[in-house]
């Protein structure tokens, strides 16, 4: 048994931490968020130069050939600095979806551009009524000759304002919540009939609603088999959930460390507030929450590629539920122990709080994942 | 033992209910229901309407323009106010300064300030906390020194709610550094247009501007602006803590919020059934409702004791702790119902009902409720010392 990183992995980790400390300070991040585009193309190019945009893609398409462990080393660092650039949506969700299910033409055309930093994508899979059910898809694609015509609305498509292309989950047959009959299509965001409404999300990143009105796509735009998209989507969201767990871990650890530092230095009643036992124990609870979450992040990074689908899904839900529960506690207590200043936009703590609050609802809430775990765990 | 209202109290309840039905503007009600901030004009307009009826300063005695109600009547009024969907009273002049002036002010101060609070000509903000004095309020450093017929004030106050709306500020300041820290504090009234005052906005994590930092740089006020004696400020501030606080638990508003959550849970369909039938949500809502019921009965007990002349002392700390925890739990429940629809932040363009769009900002905002007005940790210290006798 060995939880240590390989030399190569350690190099990735150190580079990521160095980049965060030097180039992605809280001030730098605020400037990026308030810029016109709300993200930094320069930062994105740095990610490309680091080799991060192809971190889990095979070497034959120009990727690094890493596993989920390398991905999670990066997302943990991104979470620790609350990076808003769309690594999750473009790399962890869309690139890995294309790698898993795309045909050779799609891979050859799209993956090198993603790796170079010249193509951004967003996976639009949520609908207003769908909640966390990936199979609840009302957006339809009707066959029309060799083409398909798509109608419907997707909501909260992560990173969509910056994306060039979108991958949509659409219904090609069956009823709204059937598990079969879902297909995945790649479209240009600029295609006729596509209207995006962009907005800020709680963590400072951006999402969009995507209105699709008679959007015509050729059958070549299909990714994977017709009607068989749900399994691909589930796999992608599971991987994204695992990567997001590491992002949350990074944010939680930053929250914990900053709070620990604060209670050591903040003086009230002529002493550091960290000398009060009730606060000492609270910080201890934050510490154990972070450590326990780290264990689960490691667990899921190793289990995400096992062949047994049930074991894989259990691992994802266990990690998301456990880390979600602790992310809620750590983020709430970080605000509470900072007091008034923790309630402001001026300090980073409140921003960590919002990122972790959002984490708790993305890809299924804590309760959703406890239920999913229970379902797969029954004997 | 019973919790029935008397015949007179029930009649009073009907009268209050009818008045709110007839007088609460629909747009104000809707904004309040969804949790949107009201503008200064909306707040002042509504307060003036209440004052015309004589129901603005409900805790004040009749001689100062209050309705002279019993604690039970005040409780009923608050219940009906929340039930009608009217905003909770936020006037620092009414809630905080009025009782202080009535107890410690000179006749001249009472005559000058109290009518202007009622007429809403003055908007008062509270200058207590400082960057270095939060939970340890008595360590405040803003300094006030005598200079002829005037005082000169230097320092900074923080978390000053609506300082950007206020034309007056009541402040705790240090007038003596030689004595025990509590004994060197005084209570003073400062006009916000005095030269040397700077207000810096602070945006909180709900994305809104309610809070401010206020700087005092050689600000001069006449000596007649002192309330009570020099060095009496801590006693004045503490007086407010023991003043009647039977609505501190926020039961009335939480009941309305809970009702709103149940309605959203019943009408939001996911996986072909309402969220109210999703077990994990259903149980969470029910558990919070039970906690709220317990709080309501604790509140009744405090109310009965107050009505019997035994003013709530440290027990109000229990109401504050349980009350704010329930407010936070309720706000989180709405976020849970909203799921992805809670993710867009302060935007009109997202989809979904306004309750969901506003849910995360509300949840963020209410994290402050266990920090302001004496944090959870301070409330527990009060119970530790005052009720349990541990120290």
Overview of the structural elements:
The complex is a heterodimer of chains A (379) and B (391). Chain A is α+β, with helices and mostly antiparallel strands. Chain A has three domains: 7-120, Acyl-CoA dehydrogenase/oxidase, N-terminal domain (Butyryl-Coa Dehydrogenase, subunit A, domain 1, Orthogonal Bundle), CATH 1.10.540.10; 123-227, Butyryl-CoA Dehydrogenase, subunit A, domain 2 (Beta Barrel), CATH 2.40.110; 230-377, Butyryl-CoA Dehydrogenase, subunit A, domain 3. Chain A contains eleven helices and ten strands. Chain A has helices at residues 7-23, 26-34, 41-50, 68-80, 87-101, 104-116, 229-265, 277-303, 309-338, 348-359, 366-377; strands at 121-124, 140-144, 147-158, 165-171, 182-188, 194-200, 206-218, 222-223, 267-268, 271-272. The two termini of chain A are 28 Å apart. Chain B is built from 13 helices and ten strands. Chain B has a four-stranded mixed β-sheet with strand order 1-4-5-8. In chain B, strand 9 (269-270) and strand 10 form a beta hairpin. In chain B, helix 1 runs parallel beside helix 4, helix 5 crosses helix 7 and helix 9 packs antiparallel against helix 10. Chain B is globular and about 75 Å long. The model of chain B has no long low-confidence stretch (mean pLDDT 93). Chains A and B meet through strand 3, strand 6, strand 9, helix 9 and helix 10 of A and strand 9, helix 9, helix 12 and helix 13 of B.
